Fold this sequence. Notes:
Strand order of the largest sheet: 1-2
Shape: flat
Helix content: 40-55%
Structural class: alpha+beta
Low-confidence stretches: none
Strand content: 25-35%
Mean pLDDT: 86
Number of helices: 1
Order of helices and strands: HEE
Radius of gyration: 18 Å
Amino acid sequence: MFVKVSRQTTTRDLSKLFTECCNMFKNHVLSVVSYVALTSDIWSGNAKEDFITVVAHYVSADWEL
């Protein structure tokens, strides 16, 4: 029922989807808020894997989080 695709095709499609979603998010957020605060945290897991998180906080013109 499924057609197999290559890793390259999957990578290209996911990259394109990510870019489109980022642009949609930016357009939505920038039309509502003036300022965005970003915070990040980096840590290592038990399996020596590194992780990073990024959180965005913003308040709209109506003082809504």
